[in-house]
Design a protein that fits this description.
rod-shaped, five-stranded antiparallel beta sheet, alpha+beta, 15% strand, 12 strands
């Protein structure tokens, strides 16, 4: 007999150790509660084990339970049953409010004697415990006939209750069964503290990650601002320096052209008017100078110089339009002018080189309204996307060139504009380069993410580009993930702020 008792005690202790170890192995409190209730249900061979959590006003709810299949779920039933949704009462108090249909003793007494440090309550049979009718109704709504209730404390504060219910009939609870519940309740309290620590650490980690993200974003903005401000000043400075002499040359060429024309006319007239002997001398010199060629070629040279000076003036104007240093803040602008200015900046990269053949830019401009925006910032976004397209085409060209069949396609960039149904200007920039790997598509708008080696790139990442479009202009910048080849970025900008 003694051997059986010892064997049973050892088995009980082993079961308790198993429950304790399982509780300690997890930091997820929901998982801990589920483990504790399931293990206790089998160990105690009872009908239900539940965990009840108090609210600040001492009402509460069942948060977790393990229950036999023949009984209702209190966690689910409390959603619609007012009796179940009320708090568990102190079963040793008999003077309950008989005028109410539910018992609210714990709520009325701020936790009852549990708050005073009493750890458990035991009821062998609710029908013979001298409870008021209202309290019996509450317990019957649980389908309970007998129970043990154990307090669960978080530090010194009453957090909730661990309850074991016998639904099928009365039960004489043994001392070791109550002690098992007490010890598990203590472990739940410890797990609560651990979970609280975990939540605190997670919160701090989240806050630190958010702080880090903001610092990274601020750093990226500072780097971007410095680089783009320097670029804008450099471009504006070069444009200014070029503009002065080229304006002088262009203005004087306008006078040189009629001057040369008059001089050539005068020479013709002189040749026709001079005596024959003089003409013979002039003809001799003419044969050495090729005077007839000069008469024909000089006007052409003047025309070419005028065309060249006009082209330089257009480039200077595009440079100034791109930098827009004299247009800070929001302006109503023509986006097509910004795109054209950016293409001028990239013109040398679009031309044929050892890195790639000539990149063809195909433009399909729609009839779009002017947009209220910061022109310098929008131009920087165009520059970033188009520069990435050029670099992708360069890489594609190098890969294709190394293949046996040579380069199989012409590098192209498509730029289209249109208005959408939301009265937004939509700019689509697409290339037929390498495209973006699927694994990287979710990262391309992250701060400091790059696929380029250190020291290369434009200095304006897509994260900053998106921030300019979305935060500064209330638009959107997205990657079209449906592209079969190359990459396509879509910018949507509202017409006005």
């Amino acid at each position: 007999m003694q051997a059986d008792i010892e064997k049973k005690a050892i088995s009980t202790q082993n079961s308790l150790n198993r429950i304790t170890n399982k509780i300690r192995q997890s930091l997820d409190f929901a998982e801990i509660c589920e483990t504790a209730t399931q293990e206790l249900l089998h160990l105690l061979k009872t009908d239900r084990v539940a965990i009840y959590r108090f609210n600040p006003d001492w009402s509460g709810r069942f948060t977790c339970e393990a229950v036999g299949s023949e009984w209702i779920s209190l966690v689910e039933a409390q959603q619609n049953n007012d009796l179940i949704s009320k708090n568990v009462s102190d079963c040793s108090i008999r003077l309950l409010d008989t005028h109410k249909t539910t018992d609210t003793h714990l709520q009325a007494t701020y936790g009852g004697s549990f708050v005073q440090g009493k750890v458990f309550r035991v009821c062998e049979d609710i029908e013979n415990a001298g409870f008021s009718d209202c309290y019996v109704d509450v317990l019957k709504s649980y389908q309970a006939r007998s129970y043990v209730i154990i307090a669960v404390y978080l530090d010194s504060q009453l957090w909730g209750l661990l309850a074991a219910y016998q639904n099928s009939g009365p039960r004489q609870w043994k001392e070791n069964e109550v002690q098992i519940l007490v010890q598990v309740a203590e472990q739940i309290g410890i797990a609560l503290k651990q979970a609280e620590y975990v939540l605190t650490i997670q919160k701090q980690t989240t806050e630190l990650n958010e702080t880090l993200r903001q610092l990274q974003q601020s750093q990226a903005q500072l780097v971007h601002s410095e680089k783009m401000a320097s670029l804008g000043q450099l471009v504006a400075g070069i444009a200014h320096e070029i503009n002065n002499p080229i304006n002088f040359i262009h203005a004087n060429l306008l006078y040189v052209e009629p001057y040369v024309s008059d001089l050539l006319t005068l020479v013709h007239s002189e040749l026709e008017r001079k005596p024959t002997a003089d003409n013979d001398d002039i003809s001799a010199r003419d044969s050495e100078i090729d005077f007839e060629f000069i008469l024909k070629d000089l006007p052409k040279i003047i025309d070419s110089m005028l065309l060249g000076s006009n082209r330089i003036r257009e480039i200077v104007l595009s440079l100034r339009n791109f930098s827009r240093l004299d247009e800070s803040g929001l302006k109503q602008i023509d986006l097509h002018e910004g795109i054209e200015s950016t293409l001028v900046i990239l013109n040398h990269q679009l031309a044929a080189s050892r890195k790639h053949s000539k990149i063809e830019v195909i433009k399909d401009y729609g009839d779009i309204s002017t947009v209220e925006c910061d022109p310098a910032q929008i131009n920087q976004v165009f520059l970033a996307i188009l520069s990435n397209a050029v670099e992708s085409l360069e890489e594609a060209y190098c890969i294709e060139k190394m293949r046996a069949n040579g380069f199989s396609q012409l590098p192209q960039i498509w730029i289209s504009t249109q208005m959408n149904e939301q009265n937004q200007a939509v700019i689509r920039i697409q290339d037929n380069g390498l495209g973006i790997e699927e694994s990287l598509q979710t990262k391309i708008f992250d701060h400091f993410f790059t696929t380029k080696p250190v020291g290369t790139g434009t200095g304006l990442g897509l994260a900053i580009a998106r921030q300019i479009i979305e935060d500064n202009h209330r638009g959107t910048l997205t990657l079209d993930t449906s592209q079969a080849q190359g990459a396509a970025f879509i910018i949507q900008l509202p017409i006005s702020r």
